[in-house]
Amino acid sequence: MALRVIDEHRTPDGLTFRVGETEDGDTCLGFDGYSWHTHGDVVAELSGKPEAAAIRMYVDDLLAGRSKTLSVRAMRSPSRRSLSPSR
Asked: What is the reported pTM?
């Protein structure tokens, strides 16, 4: 499934974090080159905020080092479903 990158950031530890949208409109958040990812609706439900606000808060927390995302380096895999942009 193709992913259109909406937003891209460099985390404090040097990883590339992307927010993207699939062809069917699903918002995905994850690290480039890693199979781990989450979805905007999940972040919204867990935070109790509207999706756009929840995604912004999640990204801001990640970039400020306040995120609860753990062990991402151990989860690296050559998955085809990573958040790398479609070519």
From this structure: 0.74
CA dist 6 and 17 (Å) reads 11
Encoding tokens for residue 27? 């918002």
Quickly count helices (H) and strands (E) in the chain: 2, 4
Residue 74 has pLDDT above 80, yes or no: no
User: Comparing C-alpha atoms, which of 53, 24, 17, 23 is closest to residue 38?
Assistant: 17
The pLDDT of residue 24 is 92
CA distance 87 to 75: 24
With CA atoms as reference, report the closest residue to 17 among 6, 26, 30: 30
Domain definitions of the chain by residue range: 3-75
Q: What are phi and psi of 38, to 5 degrees?
A: -135, 180
- In terms of pLDDT, which residue wins out, 42 or 75? 42
